[in-house]
Amino acid sequence: MKRHELYVQLISELTNYILQGNPKKMVISLHMEPDGFHIAAIDDRPRTDKEIDEIKHSLMLHQRPELASYYGTLLGHDFLGSARLELIGFQVKGVKVEKIPEGGVMINLWIGSEDFDPRVFTINEKTKGA
Amino acid sequence: MQGTKTLDTFVLIVVLGILLAAMLSGDVVQTFQGFFRLQVTPARLVSDFTAVEGVGPTLLNVAAVGCLGYLFLILNKLQVSGAGLAALFTMMGFSFFGKTLFNCIPIMLGVSLSALIVKKKPRDYALIAMFGTAMGPLITFIAFELGMRSIFALPGSFAVGIVVGLVMPPIAIVMLRLHQGYNLYNVGLSTGFLGLFTASISHAAGADILLLTMWSTSFEPLLMALVPAIALIALFCIVAENPRRIGQSLAEAFRDFRKILTMSGRLPSDFADYVSPTGSLLNAAILGMLFWLGLVVLGAPFNGPVLGGLFTIMGFSFFGKHPKNVLPVVCGIVVAIFLFGKDIYAPTPLLAILFGTALAPLAGEFGPIVGFFAGFLHLVIVDRTGVWHGGMVLYNNGLAAGLTATLIVSIIEWYRSSREL
Fold it and tell me: Which residues numbered 358-387 in B keep a CB inside 8 Å of some CB on A?
């Protein structure tokens, strides 16, 4: 149940962020592993390098357990005001943000327990093989 | 890492400086005697410790509570960040008028236990534990004011403190969602909510708790010099990052300060993390001095509660407040004070000007007009809320700000969502 809630909250916040940019297309995928999961979000809104850097900066703030367990509970709950990627950044173990050839952006998030290592996450191997 | 060291240095210099000031302010033995008496002094609102025991013991209490907060961060392996600084300065600020080592420790232990119960680490709730010490007066009340024998009163008060700490995280988390991060003193709303129950239980048992009014109006140069001294320490820490290029360090800090001015300040806005430690240090120095100058011009007393307000403003300058988002709120409060014919030098209006800045994120997110109305409403409601909990909750303005923010957020949310549909 706890994990289910986290999926919903993370996807809500991410969706909120992407929709604020008024894209024409948005795709979100969730891939589960025993000790973690991967969320990928793609949209078609062109972004500048500065915007991409800002997304990375917000998501890649180092892990803050004291903020994640308290203020992180706002994740996916508040839709008044701007979406906040920092709230997602508190929770994630790995982040990859890149422009896609179609013009939009792809945001990859890896989330897991204390022992979770996104480097050995199987979706990387599958992606390489595809 | 350099930034973290800068903030660490800042905290250490401030805490040690206050300790030194306490030792130099008078006879050391008398200072310690006064400090120990403060631990058993009623701590309900408004108990100005500078009026009770004088400047030296109060400063020693501030330094001791500051050390407790700092040690708590270290024990929990947390770096000194913007959020940590807000919590530390809030703890120190309120130890001018209510928090003591005696009444803080049980609550911090209770919150840490709460984390262990839900299989988290105590550090996960460290901020709640530090802010949660707002309920300290309840512990002091049970221990020393109820008239019970010490053999029952001391363990009883400790146990109540633990219980308060245990229930604090769930309440704080739910209250946060009520106002959606637009009240910076969320634990104020949470402890106020809890305080309603404790005061009602006390009332039901036939023991009505009355507010206190211990409010010093005497001029104390040492207290007046504290905020400018902390602002200077902040500037020193900025230039100490790169002593060979002082001008460049200050220019970079000013550039980052301007970035901070563009942020809403909504919880959690850790300026030190999102922008830079030096930018947030400059923000703290500027905001602290602006309020200090305002109080000097006004001729307000620099007593314990007023310094508590200034410390809290400086602490939250790392975590949500900046000149641009606090100004509309302060204007709203001041206009309400004059419109309703309140005495601006009385404790409630004066403290509302300082602590009402908890509503700064409303101005930051929705503009100055919303911020102004938030401040106006805050002054109206804060006049009433203190009686509800009998002064047991030190963050009375946090409770009033939480109610105000919840009202405004619910109206804006309803209007926006209905209109868009």
Answer: 365
